[in-house]
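This part of the workshop introduces the protein records we will be handling. Getting from the letters to the tokens is the skill we practise here. An example says more than a description, so a record of this kind follows:
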Amino acid sequence: MEWPEDAKEPSVRTLRVRDVMKTRVVAVTPSTPFRNVAELMLRHGIGAVPVVDDDAGLVGFISEADLLSKEAYGGRRRSFLGALPGIGRQESDGMLRSRGRLAREIMSAPVETAMADDALGVVARRMVENRLRHLVVVDDSRRMVGIVSRRDLLRVFARTDEEIASDVAIELRRSGQVPDGDVSASVDDGVVTLTGRVADAGDIPGICRVAWLVPGVVDVVARMKVSTAPRRAHP
């Protein structure tokens, strides 16, 4: 379902990056040796580490793919870059990183980041569209304050149906779009079904949007009917 472009944003509680991000982050400095970076990632069972300066300022990012460049291209000589005119940019970058011994030589930069107050839905869309597994969370000075992964984003779908149904009911009342009791919500495996009566068919997209914005909602099914009775005034 598409929402009208000029629809007013409902005052629903929106999850932010700060609600799911990890604040205890394993990080390295630009001078950390390659082997130490790999050992840290293996020891902590993580797929990436930020590279920060002495003031926690973000300067780069090292993923498993960056480390694998050593294995993939470590046996090739730098002169190959000139000898292979058809080589792709990604492969040539990999070759150069394979020769790196320190974090600053193998890290990716600049780094895509998120802010703690960013809406979770917006950040999730960025991660999907740009095929990102992690985003470093920074403050206004680009100092690292946390990290968020795809797995962190999935936590919102671990909420129970009862929790979701309660929040949907609360947000429907807060939105002021329907009188109390005119629309009810049931939830099954995260799928919200809205039933009841509305005064105008044009109200349905906005009501569904309120439900969609509740954390943990997988889908919204609209089964509301248009009432022929006079519309009651909202409290």
Q: What stands out?
A: The longest helix spans residues 161-175. Residues 159-226 form a domain with the Histidine-containing Protein; Chain: A; fold (CATH 3.30.1340.30).
